[in-house]
Amino acid sequence: MGAVDQPLVLRAPMAHVSIERKYMETVRFDQLDLYPQVLRAIAEMGFEEATPIQSQAIPVVMSGVDVIGQAQTGTGKTASFGIPVLHKVDPNNKKTQVIILSPTRELAIQVADEIRKLAKYMHGVKILPVYGGQEISRQIKALKGGAQIIIGTPGRVMDHLRRKTIRCEAVNTIVLDEADEMLNMGFREDIETILEYIPEEGRQTVLFSATMPKPILDITKKYQHDAVTIKVVKKELTVPNIEQYYYDVKRKDKTEVLTRLLDYYNPKLSLVFCNTKKMVDELSEELKSRGYMAEGLHGDMKQAQRDRVMKAFRSGRVEILIATDVAARGIDVDDVEAVFNYDIPQDDEYYVHRIGRTGRAGRTGRAFTFVKGKEVYKLKDIMRYCKTKIVAMPIPSTDDVAQIKAEKVMEEIGRIIDEENLKDTIDIIEKQINESDYTAMDIAAAFLKQALGQINLDNDREDSFDFDNTGAEECMVRLFINIGKKDRVKPGDILGAVAGESGMPGKLVGAIDMYDKYTFVEVPREYGKEVLEAMKNAKIKGRSVNMEPANQK
User: Fold this and answer.
1) How far is 542 from 544, CA to CA, in rounded Å?
2) What is the DSSP-derived secondary structure letter of residue 197?
3) Distance CA 494, CA 275 (A)
């Protein structure tokens, strides 16, 4: 089992084993001998690798021994016990086999939801949350239908045990989640009563707790046997000198806030981190549709595709790279000026790895984190862990963005005035003033307005092609090719030639309109010149073709 085969620090005082490990190389879920149904569900949830507590705990809990897991909230510990209990339950037996105790109704619902997602393809497995505040008659009715895994608050579980609506003769596993929190809330007596109900023979008792106060140790001594302690010991990590900010953003507003920050700070290269592959795909499509030079990077992409994306990012053709934590490993680009945590990282150490991608080689860097609601508590854990301050910031308004864009244009104009020879252009302006009713101020204001309307304010592109009026969708270029249906060419042939010759990802190619003797194809504006250059000597179906910017529709 992937995680257990690696070097451990083992201490074995009298029938007790403790596994204490520094953060190690990562373990993928497909290395943990999991059921194909569970792996399929994990893949669908978008996760690629186990967090440190998961990679250590899953194999040990699956082995059937009693376990004490010391881990903070938000480290992915639900899956640390959720995945093993799914491997243990018998779907053909409708009796209760696993009881999971949680301190609060909210956590019980959250744990039930996550285990349900993991069990999506395990037919016959029923998961039921029971908690105070919900009509007990409804829970009794659901329990009569049979549920192999019950997640509940101690008070309500005990109530059902007394009513005999939960029976324990088939229960083989009990999990105490956030045990220290349950004790703080005064549930010790209830927990001990519940443990007395469950047959001791063949019972696996799993306990997770952020801290290990004496009352917890008393419970482990009394109700566990030869327990294995798993403790993630986090390395002391400090973050480099990077400006760190966070924004309180609702999920539906995240993309809008991200684009405002990109426009406001205008970083040369940016890295955006998401927790799932699905989110990477969705966000990269959304940013491209808004005209940003963005690409996604995650583990499902073929190596050749990933290499193309990275080459484009390093060269600056792609300015925004959206990635999962796994895919971002090995990214070594010095010019990244901003890192965006679109999703708050699952683990504190991931935060350090993420923001360490900026501010390299003595450069300054910025890190922006989006949080919503209770995620601000997770952010506080990150601050404590990193011994750093992450400053709350207001979201820039559209006026702020317009103002900063204008300032950037004026800065560039100042540089041109200081460094360039403007004699010829001054002559052109003077001629225009003399021959028209415009003042110099009118002309300057018109140039500024034109500059502010451009997506890319850089002046380093000297395209010899005119892409202004090709009749394409916004941020795209419509290109004409002198080959069509009568030449027995299909849209796939055009797509293959454009992507293959230019190295541009095929999914970026837009509409392909075929006629008898010619075809129009749309590509992102930033790839227009590259595609035209690449297609100069290209052949489609053995025939040489001519490609040029289209006239407006």
Assistant:
1) 7
2) H
3) 35
Residue 545: what pLDDT? Answer: 84
pLDDT of residue 72: 63
Cα 327 off chain centre by? 10
β strands within 212-326, DSSP E: 228-233, 243-248, 269-273, 294-297, 320-323
Cα–Cα distance, 58 to 53 (Å, whole number):
8
DSSP characters over 408-459 = HHHHHHHHHHHHS--HHHHHHHHHHHHHSS--HHHHHHHHHHHHHT-S---S
Confidence check: pLDDT of 174 > 90? yes
Structure tokens at 454: 């451009």
Integer Cα distance of 498 and 493 in angstroms: 9
- The model's pLDDT over 257-283, given as tens digits with 9 standing for 90+, comes to 999 899 888 888 999 999 888 899 999
* Gap between the terminal Cα atoms of the chain: 61
Q: Which backbone phi and psi does 20 adopt, to 5 degrees?
A: -125, 120
Q: In whole numbers, what is the pLDDT of the chain averaged over residues?
A: 83
- Distance in angstroms (rounded) separating the CA atoms of residues 100 and 207: 10
Distance between CA atoms of 433 and 12, rounded to whole angstroms? Answer: 90
d(CA 378, CA 384): 10
| Of residues 257 and 17, more confidently modeled | 257
Distance CA 474, CA 457 (A): 17
Q: Are 215 and 209 in contact (CB under 8 A)?
A: no
pLDDT of 157 over the 90 cut: yes
Closest CA to 544 of 553, 535, 531: 535
Max CA pair span of the chain:
101
475 versus 336: which is more confidently predicted?
336
Q: How far apart are CA 523 and CA 534, in angstroms?
A: 13
- Hunting for tokens 């917890």 — which residue is that? 216
Residue pair 518/481 in contact by the 8 Å Cβ criterion: yes
Report the C-alpha gap between 71 and 76 in whole angstroms.
9
pLDDT at 463 exceeding the cut of 70: no
Lowest mean pLDDT segment, chosen from 17-26, 186-195, 334-343: 17-26
**pLDDT exceeds 70 at position 344:** yes
Q: Are 92 and 124 in contact (CB under 8 A)?
A: yes
Find where tokens 């956590």 sit: 107
| Pair 82, 72: CB distance under 8 Å | no
- pLDDT value of residue 539: 83
Structure tokens at 351: 């935060």
Among the listed residues 266, 368, 283, the one whose alpha carbon sits nearest the alpha carbon of residue 322: 283
pTM: predicted TM-score of the whole model, two decimal places = 0.51
Element (H, E) at 191: helix 188-197
- State residue 405's pLDDT score: 76
What angle do the packed helices 36-45 and 105-118 form, to 10 degrees? 120
Q: CA-CA distance, 523 to 511, in Å (whole number)?
A: 8
Amino acid code (one letter) for 406: A
